[in-house]
Design brief:
The complex is a heterodimer.
Chain A (H helix, E strand, L loop, with lengths): L3 E12 L3 E12 L3 E5 L6 H8 L7 E4 L2 E4 L2 E2 L5 H7 L4 E4 L3 H4 L6 H13 L3 H14 L5 H5 L8 H12 L6 E5 L7 H18 L2 E6 L2 H7 L2 E6 L2 E7 H6 L4 H9 L48 E5 L2 E4 L14
Parallel strand pairs in A: 3-9, 3-10, 7-8, 8-9
Antiparallel strand pairs in A: 1-2, 1-4, 1-5, 5-6, 10-11, 11-13, 12-13
Helix pairs in contact in A: 4-5, 5-7, 7-8
Chain B lengths: L4 E12 L8 E13 L4 E5 L6 H8 L7 E6 L2 E2 L5 H7 E4 L13 H12 L4 H14 L16 H13 L5 E5 L7 H18 L2 E5 L3 H7 L2 E6 L2 E7 H6 L4 H8 L49 E4 L2 E4 L5
Parallel strand pairs in B: 3-8, 3-9, 6-7, 7-8
Antiparallel strand pairs in B: 1-2, 1-4, 4-5, 9-10, 10-12, 11-12
Helix pairs in contact in B: 3-4, 3-5, 4-5, 5-6
Classes of the chains: A alpha/beta, B alpha/beta.
């Protein structure tokens, strides 16, 4: 595999000195690789994505030991330089296409703006490119769609427009935050297939954020499970699903109803409680209040252990521990 | 005993203003739907957005009037019933617990409202039953003092369930009750609903776009497409041997957490269903991977099956 396209080491994001949203997360994405971030809401997945794109709200403090795109350090990059990269070499897709497309402009004018701004393309050239990409993402009659406004499109079409727009300048890295969560399952399957095809053909690096373990299993090469701002387990996809080690990962997997696998009348596994909001300076394992394996050492320093090839977890437990997942 | 819910050939359309110069359009939300839910059963209703699932729920709750057809709840006409009597019989749980709870009322008032709306129940009795129900759904009586904003998503959905059950109804209509929740919280709510159903002998109409969830909770499943039920079968049979091509496509699109399988091609193409413009013949034919020439013009007959039906020209 070629050198990493995106390297994030020990990323921290704090809001107003009171909330530590990301606490030392490390993630890498290689060219042609899909890396999924998974976890419950409030785990810091989206904040990590926004931190990578330098799109954090004012008042957020970001720091990292390394934050590099294709070897370029993003940590001290000014807004002007960053805005030249963003939408150009690194692009982002958001969850709700209705709120991220401008309702007052046509699809065509929003799509062409990206190319005209970043590459100085003429209106005609940009329109041709937009039509070509709309066709590429499976939209029939692209000419018609370019003249339409976002509200005239269905949810699936809008999400395709978002993807096509993100691809206008041939990005090398695509950050997608729950790109299919608001869509029907049938459309979700189509969009995910499309992303997989584009990625293979264009060699994109994809950082995909989702809470859906089914999506993770089917599209990711590598998975990082986030909890309360930390990556608590990271492994190649097949390894993570075959041999989950962290009690939180096991708990999440136990919650999912799987047709034919989970007995119909048996209760599903569940994780009691909710993701805590963590203040800066918190010590120990943030999952300990919900964990079935908790003991006194969970309040101390938690080691990051290597438990297999490319498989690491943040937990005091030995790699071979047995016992209940998250439910005591 | 009469079935808990009986729906006979129900149809409902909505008129959508066409705007300047354009004629008004008629959106057919529910188009000739019939089924029964036996007492104690769970009918799962699945289908894409716009297929009429939620309209069906509102018709059964008596919140909407059908244009034609009959809806009987516990053997009585849903619309002609006294509202208070209906509230004692059938109650809803909606998708979004952030939108379905009054943000200005305390939890105990939200849960107690169906009781006080009945009239003639003493306040001490209301307080007692509210406390009992809060504990029954896994909340503490202390949480009764809180506002919805002070609760997590899962706790709010528990409040919505407590409010639905405080009158001890026989039937609960759940419209996407876990779609807004995290998977860990979804599991808690599904377990709670299963437990309550067994203890209180409830009947559920369970609407969801998540087929894995429906498979787990339902005894029987109805698949809706553009206002019609195209297949209905006991859950085991529907998942093991689906007959309708649309059911097959829906099942294929379920992404189970099994790595290595990739994302399936569901084969539905890029045409999306439009309830304001229902195709002639079989309404599924523009997206159907198996469609033949006759599917464009012939209306598919309803074929009876033991405990169910399927509506497709291509199945014998």
């Amino acid at each position: 595999m070629s050198a990493a396209l995106l390297e994030v080491e020990n990323l921290r994001v704090e809001f107003g000195g009171r909330i530590a949203a990301v606490r030392g997360a490390s993630v890498t994405v290689a060219r042609g690789e899909t890396h999924c971030l998974v976890g419950e809401s409030g785990c810091g997945k989206s904040v990590t994505a926004l931190a990578v794109m330098s799109l954090l709200a004012r008042g957020a403090r970001r720091s990292a030991d390394r934050l590099a795109f294709d070897g370029i350090d993003l940590r001290d990059m000014g807004e002007t330089a960053m805005s030249r990269l963003r939408g150009h070499r690194m692009a982002m897709i958001f969850q709700e296409p209705m709120t991220s497309l401008n309702p007052a402009y046509t699809v065509g004018s929003q799509m062409t703006e990206v190319l005209r701004r970043h590459k100085g393309a003429t209106r005609a050239a940009a329109t041709d490119r937009a039509a070509e990409l709309l066709g590429r993402v499976g939209i029939t009659a692209p000419g018609l769609r370019l003249g339409q406004f976002p509200h005239q499109l269905s949810g699936g079409l809008r999400q395709r427009v978002m993807i096509a727009m993100a691809l206008m300048c041939d990005p090398e890295l695509l950050v997608a935050d729950e790109p299919t969560t608001a869509l029907d399952v049938t459309v979700q399957a189509q969009i995910l297939r499309l992303l997989a095809t584009l990625q293979r053909d264009l060699g994109l690096g994809l950082l995909l954020i989702t809470h859906d373990l089914g999506v993770v299993a089917r599209v990711a090469h590598r998975v990082s499970v986030m909890y309360a701002g930390e990556v608590v387990e990271s492994a190649p996809t097949a390894e993570l699903f075959a041999a989950p080690r962290h009690p939180y990962t096991r708990g999440l997997l136990d919650c999912v109803p799987v047709p034919g696998k989970v007995a119909r009348n048996a209760p599903l596994g569940s994780i009691p409680g909710v993701v805590p909001r963590i203040a800066p300076g918190f010590a120990g394992c943030a999952f300990r209040d919900r964990c079935g394996q908790v003991n006194a050492s969970c309040a101390g320093i938690i080691p990051r252990r290597t438990v297999g090839a490319g498989h690491a977890m943040l937990c005091r437990l030995e790699p071979g521990w047995t016992g209940a997942g998250a439910t005591p | 005993m009469s079935p808990a819910i009986e729906v006979r050939d129900v149809r409902r359309t909505f008129r959508v203003r066409g705007g300047l110069m354009a004629p008004d359009r008629h959106v057919v939300a529910v188009d000739g739907v019939s089924f029964e839910v036996p007492s104690g059963g769970v009918l799962g209703v699945v289908g894409e957005s716009g297929c009429g699932k939620s309209t069906l729920a509102r018709l059964i709750l008596g919140l909407l009037e059908p244009e034609s057809g009959d809806i009987l709840v516990d053997g009585q006409h849903a619309l002609s019933m006294d509202r208070r009597a209906r509230a004692r019989l059938i109650q809803p749980v909606f998708q979004d617990p952030f939108a379905s709870l009054n943000p200005l009322r305390r939890v105990r008032d939200i849960v107690g409202l169906p009781l006080s709306a009945q009239g003639g129940i003493q306040r001490s009795e209301i307080a007692r039953r509210v406390d009992e129900m809060l504990e029954r759904v896994g909340l503490t009586t202390e949480m009764g003092q809180r506002l919805p904003a002070q609760l997590s998503g899962g706790q709010r959905q528990r409040v919505a369930i407590a409010r639905a059950l405080v009158l001890r109804p026989r039937i609960v209509v759940c419209d996407e009750p876990t779609s807004a929740l995290d998977v860990s919280v979804q599991a808690q709510i599904l377990n709670l609903l299963a437990e309550l159903r067994a203890d209180l002998k409830l009947t559920y109409l369970f609407i969801s776009h998540n087929l894995a969830v429906v498979e787990h909770v339902a005894t029987e499943v109805a698949v809706m497409y553009l206002g019609r039920i195209v297949e209905r079968a006991p859950t085991d049979r529907l998942f093991a041997a689906p007959e309708h091509p649309y059911t097959k496509a829906l099942l294929a699109s379920v992404l189970t957490p099994e790595p290595g399988l990739g994302v399936p091609d569901v084969g539905l193409g890029d045409i999306l269903p439009d309830p304001a413009n229902i195709p002639p013949g079989c309404r599924f034919h523009p997206r159907c991977p198996m469609a033949e020439e006759r599917c464009r013009s012939e209306t598919p007959p309803m074929r009876q099956r033991p405990d169910g039906m399927v509506e497709c020209l291509l199945v014998p």
